[in-house]
Amino acid sequence: MKFTMEDVAKLSGVSKSTVSRILSGKTVNISEKTRQKVLSVVQELNYRPNELARSLKMAQTRVIGLILSDLKNPFWMTVLDGVEEACNQFGYHLMICNSGNNGDKEQEYILSLQQRRVDGILINPTVHNKEMLAHLIQTGFPLVFLNRTIQGIVANSVVVNNRQGIRLAVEHLFGQGFRRIALVTYNEEGVSTWTERVEGYKEGMREHGINSVAVWRKHPEAELNLSPLYEEYQPDAVIVTNNVLTLYVIERLRELNLRIPGDVAIVGYDETVWAKHLAPPLTTIKQPARELGRIATESVIKLIQGEKLSDDAVTLTPEIVVRESSVRTR
Amino acid sequence: MKFTMEDVAKLSGVSKSTVSRILSGKTVNISEKTRQKVLSVVQELNYRPNELARSLKMAQTRVIGLILSDLKNPFWMTVLDGVEEACNQFGYHLMICNSGNNGDKEQEYILSLQQRRVDGILINPTVHNKEMLAHLIQTGFPLVFLNRTIQGIVANSVVVNNRQGIRLAVEHLFGQGFRRIALVTYNEEGVSTWTERVEGYKEGMREHGINSVAVWRKHPEAELNLSPLYEEYQPDAVIVTNNVLTLYVIERLRELNLRIPGDVAIVGYDETVWAKHLAPPLTTIKQPARELGRIATESVIKLIQGEKLSDDAVTLTPEIVVRESSVRTR
DNA sequence: CCCTTTCTTGCAATCGATTGCAGCAACCGG
DNA sequence: CCGGTTGCTGCAATCGATTGCAAGAAAGGG
Questions:
Q1: Full-prediction pTM beyond 0.90?
Q2: Which of A38, A61, A220, B309 has its CB 3.0 to 4.6 Å from that of A12, i.e. a possible disulfide?
């Protein structure tokens, strides 16, 4: 049922070369008669060229690999939508992988995508494959870091300003009169998003003359008992560095019978569909997720097409969406 | 920097054939000496075979295409996670496309995936490409419908029982003493998920002797003014057939100054990370999303491997998660 | 020691495209 | 009528693997 160029050629009474030239749009010097003939046969057979063969010969697949560290995080849904949109626009296809923050799996995927000869890779990297990634970049392979950077690796990357994001939260809370602000984040060594957000928090506090800060870290797999932490620092506000973690923290605070924002104010990370429907509606740091996806994809496509990018890193700007969860009640 | 089998062969002093046989694990009759020699060269060069060439020759790519109708819906995130997991387990890669419920885009993606010679396709189909899909199935192409069926097409599909899902909601609400139950759904012609849920609702109501029902339909792009609808039917409970739509409805009801569940109870569709954090916590119909993804993927892989599936359709069972939004207050 | 059988390995065709080079036909002017 | 252009098309090599067939080497039997 599947036809080849050979078949089309035979039925049109021409050679493969001619068919190929017509289909690839190399309009140069093909008589209108043969062109019509060939196109009608193509139509009739419903022929479509085998992309594998084409890719093999052309040494390009028009496929981009995407490696995410945690597919379950709803944040990626919007990013993914932007990535898909850009891919579609430029005629690329997307191959998706989920490393689950596992270094070995990530490595296997990188190799595997390369074996499949993807033209470029978008990656939200783990911290476990530094040398491999560095090597890849060094060899000129089109690679773009998505939302995370890796210490010590100069790479094209598209990220959102994490320090600024947290500082928006800090400034807002200070404006509302809160002073004892704690931060809750994930306990994952070396992940730039978390470390930068923690730094942003400390900087922000320091600027207001506060050096006694509280950073609470939750291991992704374990529970976090807020009770002793709360007792020790007695915060009047909490900033959380991740969307799902925010829900977790809210739940734990409720268990301590703390009212939001009366006893403790909350600012969460990532604007989500549900943020405004929580009780009380949640103040969030909104990251431009779709743009993140779009721009990163456009970047990798530019690299593929041989363009030099003017900047190694594109840094997007977060906003704060203020809702009741962080507004001082009288 | 990229080596070919030829290079490996030359450096090992053997022919391509031998290298190929060793790497493809065809252990039959290769002397241990040459095997070791070749493997060491492979190691040294860091050689990995070109999958394009292999795929071309073998006429299989070990890639599965996934076409979703609406990537933005958080429901898919969990499904996707299940799909990815199964793909990974069986050594397949995933190519993702988003039709955005657009028939033309869907068609283009189907053709394009076929051109790329994916081994099989998982699709959450729109209603616009019946003949094409039917034809595909007829030719024996491994295709599995995901979460939706298409009227008039017998296909392998994995779905969740939609009638039963809604009826769980109806029964629960009746148990709580609600009688004037309205349903809100999307106004999309012919989409099985919506039509089946509407039917389930009507059946459930009829069984309780209620023939006067209210189905409110929201066009995906337009606003829905609940005020007149509410006035007309005066429901004491509302079931919503989609997760994001549920948030929308809750917002509109709030604008009408209706208290939940005091004035009107709510049951939403899809168990989400945020459901239990809403105010009040939301009762939901929980679909086994990850299993949906896993099983559909396993099905298409079986089809690819030539197995006959014992049943055309696998129907999974939803559950109800009861929370305060649908519990009668005294 | 020769012939047969069993291991190993290589040759060359194949998968389905793309493309440089060359050849043939038609057309032109002189 | 002939040589030179120009226009159109085909031949055959190539991309990087896989694999049927056959040949050469090694081993075994008489």
A1: yes
A2: A38
